[in-house]
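Renewal narrative, Specific Aim 1. Our central claim is that a sequence can be written position by position from structural information alone. The example that follows is taken directly from our test logs and has not been curated for this report. It begins with the structure tokens describing the chain, in the order in which they were read.
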């Protein structure tokens, strides 16, 4: 039962790591507590009977070691780099930041010219044509006057088309803003808002990288636990062979064989459970990185992740969530500053070219106009004042979010530092107990061979060694996970792999 509790504790820790890794978490979250409560449903209770054998299987043969050769072996830094480059969650965060960056272009539109062209083809049911010659001749006849210069009258007799039956109209207009309150006061807040969105996307990437680190390091702990379970199985099989030999020699009873077979079954149940946990975490790691990979069993502990700043330097303020919230406050302050000057006029220079197939009195088909226009908003049905109150409320919300984000980041950093200290102490104790359990097992085994130790004492020594070895593997994985959590609390995971900014 002691071995079962150890296995359940180990699997609970790794299961919690896998669950955390599956959440991209664009929001800032506090690190998980140091220990996870044991859950009986996470590990099946080992049976005292040996597992069912397939035809032709040797009950005394060790379980075949499962080697996954289809997955590429990578280090933690390589796994993090893969996630930063091709993770779907990181790609979604990058796209969201690009959407916010487009708002800057919209803000600059207040200073860009507006060019438009339009054309019309008009058919009129009442054409209008004017003739000066006919008008003068008609007036002369009405008053009985004789034309003095008929040639001049004939020159004025050409008809002037005011509105033809078919008319063609075209206009080209260029409007260049010279001043507008939007262009003067909203470009800066738009840039700051884009920076806030970019930092928020980097926070989402940081959480994805933290999930990859937890999953990767959890897999390393499982691999070490698998090695301990394989050693326990090999020892149990050796105990079976010794018990069989003693029974044949008539110096032992079958209870020793039964105890050895129960330990073998228990070790195999632990191996099967660990294999299932490992396959699940490998699938999670593949979904986060976009590639079939597995941890490097020869990699050293991730000590670089634990390099942290001093508390006086407030390193938690470098977390992307805090920096994003601070930029959001600055952007909201800029918008409220614009509300104070939204009453200012908009001034623009306008150039307009016209084409009219009806030349009219001017005799010109093409004309142009140059305008200097100003628009002063006096009252817009109260929309400007409603927007002002709304933006003031958004500013208050942004300030509250910043204070909350800063407080959560500080709490997460303090918790991560405390968790590292506790995890390192537990790891040192677990390593010491593992070394002691190994020496005790060798001593009891030597005593058993000399006939001064019973099979029950030998079984107890084997169980305690497996328990100590499993606890040491769990403690080593926990230390590395806490280091990754501290790095994420300071926004250092992306810098650890020299990741490029999401927006250039």
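The sequence written for that structure reads:
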């Amino acid at each position: 039962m002691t071995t079962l509790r150890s296995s359940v504790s180990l699997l609970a820790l790794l299961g919690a790591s896998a669950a955390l890794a599956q959440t991209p978490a664009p929001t800032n979250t506090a690190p998980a507590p140091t220990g996870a409560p044991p859950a009986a449903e996470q590990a099946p209770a080992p049976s005292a009977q040996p597992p069912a054998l397939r035809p032709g299987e040797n009950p005394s043969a060790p379980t075949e070691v499962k080697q996954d050769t289809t997955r590429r072996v990578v280090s933690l830094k390589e796994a993090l780099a893969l996630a930063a480059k091709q993770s779907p969650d990181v790609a979604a965060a990058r796209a969201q930041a690009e959407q916010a960056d487009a708002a800057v272009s919209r803000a600059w539109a207040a200073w860009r010219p507006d060019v438009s062209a339009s054309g019309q083809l008009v058919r009129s049911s009442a054409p209008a044509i004017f003739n000066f010659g006919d008008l003068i001749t008609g007036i002369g006849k009405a008053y009985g006057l004789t034309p003095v210069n008929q040639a001049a009258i004939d020159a004025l007799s050409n008809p002037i088309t005011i509105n033809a039956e078919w008319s063609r109209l075209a206009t080209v207009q260029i409007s260049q803003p010279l001043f507008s309150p939007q262009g003067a006061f909203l470009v800066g807040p738009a840039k700051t808002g884009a920076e806030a969105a970019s930092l928020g996307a980097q926070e989402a990437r940081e959480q994805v990288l933290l999930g990859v680190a937890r999953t990767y390091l959890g897999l390393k702990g499982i691999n070490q636990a698998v090695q301990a379970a394989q050693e326990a199985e090999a020892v149990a099989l050796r105990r079976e062979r010794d018990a069989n030999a003693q029974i044949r020699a008539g110096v032992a009873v079958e209870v020793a064989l039964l105890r050895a077979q129960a330990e073998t079954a228990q070790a195999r149940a632990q191996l099967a459970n660990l294999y299932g946990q490992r396959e699940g975490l490998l699938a999670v790691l593949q979904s986060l990185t976009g590639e079939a990979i597995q941890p490097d069993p020869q990699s050293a502990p991730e000590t670089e992740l634990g390099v942290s700043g001093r508390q006086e330097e407030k390193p938690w303020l470098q977390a992307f969530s805090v920096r994003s919230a601070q930029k959001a406050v600055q952007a909201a302050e800029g918008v409220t500053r614009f509300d104070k000057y939204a009453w200012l006029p908009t001034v623009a220079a306008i150039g307009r070219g016209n084409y009219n197939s009806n030349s009219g009195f001017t005799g010109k088909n093409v004309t142009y106009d140059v305008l200097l226009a100003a628009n002063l908003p006096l009252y817009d049905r109260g929309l400007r004042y409603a927007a002002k109150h709304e933006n003031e409320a958004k500013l208050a919300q942004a300030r509250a979010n910043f204070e909350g984000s800063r407080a959560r980041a500080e709490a997460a950093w303090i918790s991560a530092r405390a968790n590292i200290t506790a995890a390192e102490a537990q790891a040192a104790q677990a390593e010491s107990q593992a070394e002691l359990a190994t020496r005790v097992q060798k001593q009891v085994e030597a005593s058993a061979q000399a006939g001064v130790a019973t099979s029950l004492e030998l079984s107890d020594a084997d169980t305690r060694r497996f328990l100590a070895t499993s606890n040491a593997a769990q403690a080593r994985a926990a230390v590395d996970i806490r280091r990754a959590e501290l790095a994420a609390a300071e926004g250092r995971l992306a810098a650890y792999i020299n990741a490029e900014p999401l927006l250039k």
